[in-house]
Amino acid sequence: MAESIGEGREICQLSIAMAKRKRNQSREPSKERKKSSKKSKIDPAVSGPSTHLREKDFTGDDSDNNDDYIAFNVSDDDEITKSEPESVQDKSSRRNTDDESKKTSKRRPDETWKRYIDDGLERPWAKDFRYRKARNIGERLNMEMTDLVEYLSPTEEEHTMRRFAVHRIRQCAQMVYPSCTIEVFGSFETKLYLPTSDIDLVLFYDGKDARDTTRVLSRLADALRKQGIAYTVQVIAKARVPIIKFEETFTGYQIDVSLNTANGVHSAEVVKEMLVQAPALGPLTLIFKHLLGLLKLNEVFTGGLGSYAVVLMVMSCLQTHPKVDMSDAMDNLGVIFVDLLELYGQHFNIYNVGIDVAKKGFYEKMETRNTFAVRDPTDASNDVSRGSFNCQQIRIALKDAFNTLTRAITSLNRQVWDFHKKDDGISLLGCIIHVDRQAITHRSQVLDAYTSQQWKDMPGAETFDASDNESSISTTKEQVIVHKQHDVFDKKGKRRSKKDIVYVLEDEDPEFKGKGNAWSSEEDDHGLSLPQLA
């Protein structure tokens, strides 16, 4: 009996030992898989907040590498592909990488970036037949940048319809507040707006109740709604800058109206001056803004970058670029755009350095914080990017765009100029940029409304000047006289008369210098005696 019990114990212990051995054997592959997964961990700067971005002072340029800031890196290194997420790579090809490298030393062009072709998104700017004629990768990218800018830029018809929307709003505002004026500012004034951009307006009103911002904006919002000019109206009274947000009923454009905020008008004048100094500022700004819009990082109230901040950041990149002069930047749009993504997505030291376009350089932050700092050229105390709290997400998105675009450039360069394969003309920018179908449809609707003359049947059309000739200027050596005509409306919205204001800007006769303001109607003469022009 005792012997049988002992034998049973031995059998039990043996079975337990065998079970443990099998369990350990089954665990060993999983350990190996864990080790391999650690080795293939992606760059945290691509998938999450960066913990090891270079933080050289000011530009953060790595002086040890001696990389050419302007040239494309189309060498055979794997730095770009290593930072790509694992989901982009083919798992089966990853398993056999070592075996294939042993069989042949000749590298094949990586065409995984072309997968976007089947994503169903629109890239209407791309002209494949043109890009096949490029002599090198830089010229090819520059061609496509030019085509994209041409597509994104506002057409004459679109600008006229935006002006018509502003005219209807101005007419309604003057019915509610007869002494008020409505001014347009921001990207509308500089024509750096996208097809989907809002129209920014400011209501200048100095009445007795002007201090009650909420009441003033609410009255205007009610009038716009009742006149059928606006729907989906919101009065955002508790914002840092209270505004009315709505959609104009005829054109479908999104409108923002603020009260007595003169900063926006001043910033438009600054941008106009910079556009003269740097012709490449406009094209680069349009594409950069469009990319941020696709990434949902173009609205300040959601932590993104505002239009004015984007313009100043692009201008700073042009001012401080070590290889390209601003006068020659139009010939290097593609290279500068890639550098722009790399600079603000990877190398710029946001913690200690701010952007100062007025001094064509940078400044040291007084306090360390993980957001961009962009000084207003008209007011050094105003940080135009202070509301862009989602800075880390902006950097991650820009770095990811830089990696993807650079990978596409490297791949195409190997395919065409190293392996001598035919260039299929596929869009390079298409791997990071597209156009929403909704935006394409809306542009088509606006064009139809203009060409079919539908707008002429809308209220306010009879007083709208579609020619955009708001003023005429006559000049001689002695004087400069500006004639402007403004419509005057009654409470029912009908045009009562024309107000003709004549400004004598310069004249030798002190009797007329600085004078010349007068009212006139269609029937009456103002009776003002002005010096006759020769």
UniProtKB/TrEMBL annotation:
One of its GO terms (molecular function) is metal ion binding. Keywords: Magnesium, Metal-binding, Transferase. Residues 1-109, 511-534 are annotated as: Disordered. InterPro entries: MTPAP-like_central, NT_sf, PAP_assoc, Trf4-like. The keyword Mitochondrion does not apply. The keyword Lipid biosynthesis does not apply. One of its GO terms (biological process) is polyadenylation-dependent ncRNA catabolic process. Its cofactor is Mn(2+). It is an enzyme of class 2 (transferase). Residues 1-10, 80-109 have a biased composition (Basic and acidic residues). Its EC number is 2.7.7.19. GO terms for cellular component: nucleolus; TRAMP complex. It comes from the Eukaryota. SUPFAM superfamilies: Nucleotidyltransferase, PAP/OAS1 substrate-binding domain. Belongs to the DNA polymerase type-B-like family. This is polynucleotide adenylyltransferase. It comes from Umbelopsis ramanniana AG. The lineage of its organism: Eukaryota, Fungi, Fungi incertae sedis, Mucoromycota, Mucoromycotina.
